[in-house]
Amino acid sequence: MNLQERYDQLVQEAFVGREDEVEHFLHHLSLPFNSSERHYIFNVYGPKGVGKSTLLRRYRYLAREELNFPVVSAWVSENTSSVLDTLAHIADPFLLPHFQEQFQFFKHRFAELKDSEPARQQTVDLSQPTDLHRKIGLFFSLEELQSLCFDLGIEFENIAGGTRQAKATSLVGYCNRHDLRADLIARCAHLRPHVDWQDTAMVAHMREEFDEDALWEAHVRRHVADEAQVELLLHPAAMLTPMLLADLHQALGSTIHLLLFVDGYGDKQSFLEPWLCHLVNGRFGTVPSNITMILAGETPLTGSCWDTYQQFISQQHLEPFTESEARDFLQAKGIDDSSQIDHLLSTVKMPGRQRYLMLDLATAVASGGTIMTGSSHKTKSTVALFLKIIEEKQYRDTVLRAALPRRLDENILALLMDQDDISKEINWLIFWPFIKASGADTWTYHDHMRDELLAYSRHVATANWSEQQERLIAYHIGYRARLNEQISDQWHHPDWQTATLDIIYHRLCQSRASRRRHVSSILGDFLFALQADPKFAGRWADTVAQAGHDCGSRHIQEWGNFLKDGVQAHAAGDHEKMTIMLSKLLERKTLEDRHRVIALRWRGDSCRHLHYEQKAITDYNNALAINPDYAWAYAGRAETKRWLEQYDEAIADFNKATDLEPEFVWAIAGRAQTRHQLKQYEEAIKDFTHAVELNPGYAWAVAERGKTYQKMGKYENALADFNKTLELDPNYHWALADRGETYRLMGDATKATEDFEKALANNPNDALTHRRLERVLKSSRK
Prior knowledge:
The chain is mainly alpha-helical. Helix content is 65%, strand content 5%.
């Protein structure tokens, strides 16, 4: 019997109660698959510590042992972080030839392409404009923005930007400079009367045309010719799920029942719920009726997705113990002494007497421990009482030291216990209900129990706290150093990320001196994380907040929460909040220059989007004063000067940026756009072409080159670029309209009409294209 099997056995031996829920679950599983009374989704929900995970394991055990038909279980654990991980968990118990072949191909080819992907030196700032700019970008398409410009007497060609959000930002800036803001707001209010155009609190998140997804797609298409493989690499979950379902139909047949358990659903909801909704509504194909899902979280399943399927969902709300239930529970665990029960109940102060804590204490007493109940007993802490029940010092040390890391395995426990063989301690430790498996031979403490153990260690058993934290720091530094020898793109590698977060956590927990020594570099490196991978930055912020909570430092916890706000602001394009976060970081006198230049450049970008152009230029200047070779600062300053119509100075700064980074696509394209505005069309064509050569998937640059060719009267070249744009992005509606305009200029009324009508079919409210169509139709009649 391995450790996982032993753990499952101990959980079942310790289980008491929840008879109604168990009976309901087994009853529904025993119903025919096509029964109208059958529930296909069980939603187990309730507060932390109430026993959800334990109940799910009970369901799994009883379904396997007591039903008279074969049952297979797939368990989506807490360390599952994507839909692809979920697919792998579901497929794991089966032989699914087609799915597994394609899944292995995907993993192998994906890893190859990731290793060969160019370094993302050109990663574009994905943040978005605020206030009026954001609203216009949200409520108006590109075609409608063209109409707005026409109505206001503005040449659309003079409004910079490729996406509707960039165009909206430039349009507002233009109107501000030419005293047209009031006219713009009045026109917007006329076209969208349901929107409060004076309200500046709205937040919207719009996708840039040029982002990491576009870079990845271009990289894939350069290296993969087969379109089916391209789709698999770009949209793996959507491609693999139908294969999984088809294979499951074969593997399950009409007799085998599959139970899909998802523990900690709330932590996975952001990526799992959209996929599950598509799964149950048939988007991926027919789901076998002999599959039952059991989803456990703190809140019930609600929302438009689940409301449709409530008749198939069984909601099981788990409540904490009342005092009466707690007494029954302790008696069922073999504790008959009323004085011991009274003392246990008076000691457990948590609201509702959470099940796991009652179970820990009851297990300790039932296994031979005793409780001091006389007047001399002064213990107020539940942990202190728990430790008093454990008679051997070795085991008391084990339970305290094992709480220090955020996750536990045999190597880490051996390090903390300073001994080679810790099998006895591991077997003893996993006996306790507060330990839960988090992966293959890895465990975590229940959050509430770990909180109490850490608080006890900090305030009572303080002698080894700093030393043990130092050991954990050294362990994770060593592991990360070994990874550095094996991988090239560390900031995007999940194991490297996890090791880095563990180092951060234990450095912040170790001591006040350690926190003072490392906090500035940790806060500064957060900017590198945000630059490399916003999801990693979110975990970084969570780690800082958790370290502050676990070491009792409100200051560090507040910093963690502040960084969380920054991650959310970055994702939502909230430049005002980004500016606040960056300013707070810049106030730290101990912030290193390598971090300060990034913070200054990013604040400059935010100020530019907020149309504080002079503040933006000041930040870029200050960044360049620290690092004169910082290409992004030159490019940001160049873009700001382009917005201010200081075109010659903008080109000079774009030149400096590309001198430093010759393949800086965003700067090359920005210089091309500036040259277009200066009517330097030949030079603009050269730059747009260079940008497209570096990134063939850059649809905006291809389209802008087409518009430049159109201005030059080179209509065949323009048509080729508009066609290419629509191949890259079939939803690039205004490229279709511009192609129609090119046909009109060439005198081909038939094709012009076709394109205008197609554009209007996609967007019937596009007033500019309506006028273009009317003009070409009128011309044809003449």
